[in-house]
Amino acid sequence: MKGFLVTGTDTGVGKTLVSAALIHGYAVRGERVAGLKPVVSGAVDGVWEDVEILRQASIPPRSREECNLYAFPAAVAPHWAARQAGLQIDLDAILRFLEEQAAGVERVIVEGAGGFLVPLGNGQSFADLAIALQLPVLLVVDLRLGAINHALLSAEAILRRGLPWGGWVGNHASPQPVAAGTLEGLQESLPGPCLGVLPYRAAPCPQALSQYLRIPASP
User: Fold this and answer.
1) For the chain, which has fewer Cβ within 10 Å, the N-terminal or C-terminal residue?
2) Which residues lie across from 138 on neighbouring strands?
3) Rg value, the chain, Cα
4) CATH code reported for the domain at 3-212
5) Which residue among 16, 25, 33, 37 is the active-site one?
6) First-to-last CA distance in the chain?
């Protein structure tokens, strides 16, 4: 299995946007790419927007069931959403799902939910999924005040587990100006590579924003 596990410094930082932009970048190279979000919570009118974006961005496009395994309506942490639904998230089931969906494509872009240590239940978190997958972990950083601390804590958690580091992407998730020195501080403090910095767009288009990313070569 080749690709990335995309995580973020928080929820709502642009993981789905970066994931879809990566998919487009690899598709331009002629690769078949699966965008996968195995666990999602928070539906609007019965639709999970992140899943819709990833499944439609995939080459070839996928059904919702081919993009997502666990979907919960409540916009709360996945382990709590599962508990409210009377379910348990099974890490082994997620791994089987990802292996099945990786068949027939050159690359997978697997998006987490929330940040790197968001719990899945039963004492497990997305960090355990990352350890099991051993895909390079790509960190999406929301460029706002406090980003340096959040990014460094996330990077430390990833690297302390001996996981392959895929680099980071800065994202202007808000139209508010970035605090002076934030981007420079991240560039000085985070391990490279920085795969790009995405500008703010009120209606972001992953295909258009992919031009701001440096798409890594295989593996």
Assistant:
1) C
2) 6, 167
3) 16
4) 3.40.50.300
5) 37
6) 10
Contact 114, 11 (CB under 8 A): yes
pLDDT at residue 217 greater than cutoff 90: no
Looking at this protein, which amino acid is placed at residue 165?
W
Q: Measuring CA to CA, which residue among 58, 59, 80 is closest to residue 68?
A: 58
37 is catalytic: yes
Q: Where are the domains of the chain?
A: 3-212
Q: What are phi and psi of 197, to 5 degrees?
A: -130, 120
CA-CA distance, 75 to 107, in Å (whole number)? 29
Helix (H, G, I), strand (E, B) or coil at 162: coil
* Structure-model confidence comparison of residues 180 and 110, the more confident one: 110
φ and ψ at residue 40, rounded to 5 degrees: -140, 145
Structural tokens at position 142:
């929301």
- pLDDT digits 0-9 by tens, 21-66: 999 999 999 999 999 999 999 999 999 999 999 999 999 999 999 9
Q: What are phi and psi of 57, to 5 degrees?
A: -75, -25
> Residues 144, 181: contact at Cβ < 8 Å?
no
